[in-house]
Amino acid sequence: MCGLFLIELVLVDCISLKETKMKKPVLLLSALLASLALSGANAVWAQAKEQFVPVLSYRTGPYAPNGAPWANGFVDYLKWVNSKGGINNVKIAYEECETGYDTARSVECYERLKSKNPSFVQTLSTGATFAITEKAPGDKIPVVTIGYGRSESADGAVFKWNFPIAGTYWVAADTIMQAIAKKEGGWDKLKGKKVGLVYHDSPFGKEPIPLLQERARNHGFELQLLPVTPPGVEQKATWLQVRQSKPDYVVLWGWGVMNSTAIKEAQATGYPREKMYGVWWAGAEQDVKDVVDGAKGYNAVTIQHGAEPNADIVKTLLTQIHDKGLGTGPKEEVGQVLYLRGVMSAMIGIEGIRAAQERFGKGKVMSGEQVRWGLENLNLTQAKLDALGFKGVMRPISTSCTDHMGAAWTRIHTWNGKAWEFTSDWMQADEQILKPLVKATADKYAAEKKLTRRTGQDCQS
Amino acid sequence: MAVGAYGAYNFFARIPDMPLIPAMVLGGLCATLFGILFGLPSLRVRGLYLAVATLAAQFFADWMFLRIKWFTLDTPSGSVSVSNLQVFGLPIDSDVSKYLFCLTLLCIVALLAKNLVRGAIGREWMAIRDMDVAAAVIGIRPMYAKLSAFAVSSFIIGMAGALWAFIYLGAWEPSAFSVDQSFRLLFMVIIGGMGSIVGGFLGAAFIIVLPIFLNQFLPLLTGLLGMAMSTTMVSHAELMIFGSLIVWFLIVEPHGLAKLWSIGKQKLRVWPFPY
């Protein structure tokens, strides 16, 4: 393909020059070929010396305001690990690839970077997670989705290569419902109430529906589904429905520009923001900063952390990375929700590699399979987290062969007009609801793909 | 494309042990029916109006696969996936096998298309395209010619959609076949050169390979000049250069790359003694 393109380019040049000078295109061609050869050489160099981490990010397109801080946090953390000498002296090599939150582009990035022997891949989009889930087992690359991805992949016995560590959308949805029930004064008070789910009409937005339906069946409230076409700048019709049907609560499953638009529309419709609960992708500074006061009282669930400007890790990154002029993004965003999520995602990946090194040899470059073992046997105790600077930010996470999630801790935070403020204690998703749903959905997937559940023996490997 | 992909998926997933190639062909046939249906307005409207009328098909397909749960086998997320693909017992999982599989299908379809265009039916299509009244006068049935053109092109694009979804994406949702994708296909045709098969290849190469090439080449170029280029900058620059190249091509050669290709061939044929 590439060759064809080069010929084409040269031809075009020939014609535009009207054959006056034939030497120029030849020169151009050789320059191109030389640069291509150079790029190949670079790739080989990186592979031989370092642990490679691909960074799929989106800094362009409608989701860029939210995607950029995540990527900045992720890269800053990697830089920090490298400045400390890497993982037992193995440095991290990373390469960013722009996806634009587009599934096809994400797949292309994945295919492009997989030749560099990546430790793991963080897809950063539910659509891409679905696509890469099908490819990763063949390529032996773990798919790490911190707080997102496909919820049923928490079942490690079926999804051997998927790691939705720290929580899934079902955890988020379940704890939102718990918070609502608490506000109402108990689950029995929810009977006959109406909960509207305003969601991004994509696999991401549809993820919580099975869980909410299950909860609705159990507690007798009515679930109203209100899809919003991505990217969600036009929501008049949706909010007209909200005005007509007056749901008691609105759960907002939005992303990017959809969130601030939804809050503005709620303001315009006069829907009380106190009764709106967002998923954690809808609970960052970027989502409320355009509406500031209008968003006062708006709640969002956080998986593990929220905005933590005073956390140790944030201070460390500020002094050791940003103050040295190595920061990837603007300094103000350090410690914000999405930035910190990037940091946490990188940290969990790195700890997975570290765990793998402890078993397969310290100071060695780990393969995807070895990192998979590390992620599966991750045990982040509170002491370890505190040492890493995540004191008060995160609770312990410990994964196993069957449980690839490791923890289901969330909190609710509320926008007070100036900052995000925690308004609830730590909550945990209800296992009674979550477990059977995860198992049933994973079994369905296994049947569809003709997979068998992993046995105890396979877990040892 | 979407119809082909989802059609093939439904045959593949609903019928146990359905082989891959028949599923794809059946998916193509679904697209054919859909194409004929949405080709009906072509009997009345022409040119740009027809293009706009067929855009309706885009929105209809989008809605259909997003809202009618039956097509996606009631998956809660609306995303469907395929895996363990094989043809005649050979698994299609490595890059090489995927490439060879696509290449084989492409060759077969391209040869068929080339022969169709060369044959009587292709001549009928060309006559209809150039002037439908005159074509009708010399005894070409406009309805038959127009609808068969829609049917054949829909079949091919349906197969392409099935290949794209099955082989490349592996799992997809309706937004994979968004209006952006349709526009890219349209650009491929326009840039490649309308009415030629080699133009299709060249246009596709231009639209697909050029962004990847720019994406890889720009950081290297700035690296040589001693500057690091951020990923954001690269993707912005990529879009800008890509856009301006499209405009430039359309101005310099409105008949597309296929025309350039034939001019180039002609010039090389008489080189080094042009007359």
Quick description:
Chain A is an alpha/beta fold. Helix content of chain A is 48%, strand content 13%.
Describe the structure.
The complex is a heterodimer of chains A (461) and B (275). Chain A has 461 residues and is an alpha/beta fold. Chain A folds into three domains: 1-33; 52-166 and 309-401, Rossmann fold, CATH 3.40.50; 170-303 and 410-432, Rossmann fold, CATH 3.40.50. Chain A contains 17 helices and 14 strands. In chain A, strands 5, 6, 7, 8, 9, 12, 13 and 14 form an eight-stranded mixed β-sheet that branches. In chain A, strands 1-2 form a two-stranded parallel ribbon. In chain A, strands 3-4 form a two-stranded parallel sheet. Chain A is globular. The two termini of chain A are 40 Å apart. The model of chain A is unreliable at 1-48 (pLDDT under 50). Chain B has two domains: 1-177, no CATH class; 178-275, no CATH class. Chain B is built from eleven helices and four strands; from the N terminus they run αααβββααααβαααα. In chain B, the strands form two sheets. In chain B, strands 1-4 form a two-stranded antiparallel ribbon. In chain B, a hairpin with a 2-residue loop joins strand 2 (86-87) and strand 3 (90-91). The longest helix of chain B has 28 residues, at 142-169. The termini of chain B are far apart. Chains A and B meet through helix 1, helix 2, strand 2, helix 4 and helix 5 of A and strand 4, helix 9, helix 10 and helix 11 of B.
